[in-house]
Amino acid sequence: MRAKITYLVTAAVLVFYFVLVGSRGVMLIQSGTVLTVTFGIAVLILPVIGVWFLWKNTQFVRRANQLAAALDAEGGLPVDELKRTAGGRVDRDSADEVFAKRKAETEESPDDWRCWFRLAVAYHDARDTPRARKAMQRAIALHDGRTIEA
Length: 150
Description:
By secondary structure, this protein is mainly alpha-helical. 78% of the residues lie in helices and 0% in strands.
């Protein structure tokens, strides 16, 4: 729940920023000189890119949550079997063991979105965010019946 609130607050702050920057870009364009119009257009590009990026990330999170709900309904969500230190941090050896199991499971069933979802969770637990994201993207694509490049 805390992650959802953090995401919503961050998204709201970004939208506010995009509106603020966009209004400055419009003001520059309205000035009418060649220089200010050029700067205004350049300034308007930033919010457009930001809105696109925020939209793509929101779609990704929404789809990943849908897969989590579907897997939960099947009783297939990965169980947290990680050992933790006294401070609550994940034990590295434990994360490596779980990752090895998830990777082997995925290699046995490379077309099963469930395996890719669990592998994404293992990557996340191992703090490998780029690979976690790619594995989740593959799980989403497989669930939707699409294929993506390895």
